Known about the structure:
Elements: E1 6-9, E2 13-19, E3 22-27, E4 32-33, E5 36-37, H1 45-59, E6 68-71, E7 77-81, E8 84-85, E9 88-95, H2 98-107, E10 109-110, E11 113-114, E12 124-130, E13 133-134, H3 146-153, H4 155-177, E14 181-192, E15 198-201, E16 210-214, H5 230-239, H6 252-270, H7 274-279
Antiparallel strand pairs: 1-2, 2-3, 3-7, 4-5, 6-7, 8-14, 9-12, 9-13, 9-14, 10-11, 14-15, 14-16
Helix pairs in contact: 1-6, 3-4, 5-6
The site of ligand PZK has 17 residues, from strand 1, strand 2, strand 3 and strand 7.
Amino acid sequence: xxxxxxxxxxxxxxxxxxxxxxxxxxxxxxxxxxxxxxxxxxxxxxxxxxxxxxxxxxxxxxxxxxxxxxxxxxxxxxxxxxxxxxxxxxxxxxxxxxxxxxxxxxxxxxxxxxxxxxxxxxxxxxxxxxxxxxxxxxxxxxxxxxxxxxxxxxxxxxxxxxxxxxxxxxxxxxxxxxxxxxxxxxxxxxxxxxxxxxxxxxxxxxxxxxxxxxxxxxxxxxxxxxxxxxxxxxxxxxxxxxxxxxxxxxxxxxxxxxxxxxxxxxxxxxxxxxxxxxxxxxxxx
Length: 285
Ligand code: PZK
């Protein structure tokens, strides 16, 4: 089916070769928290993420072309055009969180963007910022400034990737905000097609590649609850787990609650019943 050789593994996804020009991206139901993949899957999580990615790919082609060719009937496999990937993570931040908040607190800047003094954690930024990062093969990506990112990609590719990423973030954040979800930040991966066009790849605007916050609970000045993973994180905290592998097995109620949150994110963002997606994955296209 995905037929060919295994090309790469992410923490919770796999890539296979279909032929010289084509890849299959398969999303599992694995979940990671505190950087550890837990032993208990969340049923349909891979389908939620695959359906969301495909939904965004179909709706953002006017902003930048993307690698999606086809969605498989299993709902967890995207058939994609093979690209030459850019060597940076294209991160866009609309709010101060995660490593953006950390870098700001330590230096007053994120990826070379000097920000106003005295901002609180989770503050909405006056404008979204592009904060490229290195692709670490293990450990954490490191935010880099525009000069380094430009040198890694080449001037033209860098500017095309930056413009695409900012426009995609603005589109996704506006769509999500209108449906009660704050898209605090997100990471895109872009590649270059054989004709030199810069193309959106990987997954896009999913809870695994983004910070989704429930708008109803938004309160700047501290860490925000994650739309999708907060049940899991809270439960893990209560067990006293030291956050080193292996992680704990999740109880049924935490699995069910977490699955509901993923499905809720899917339905709020796509306005498509998740059961319709399961019956016919092309419903998101
Ligand atoms: C590609 N990754 C990262 C993602 C993993 C690893 N269209 C493409 N062409 C060529 N290469 C890639 C893609 C895409 N997407 C992306 N590695 C290679 C990655 C998901 C799971 F294991």
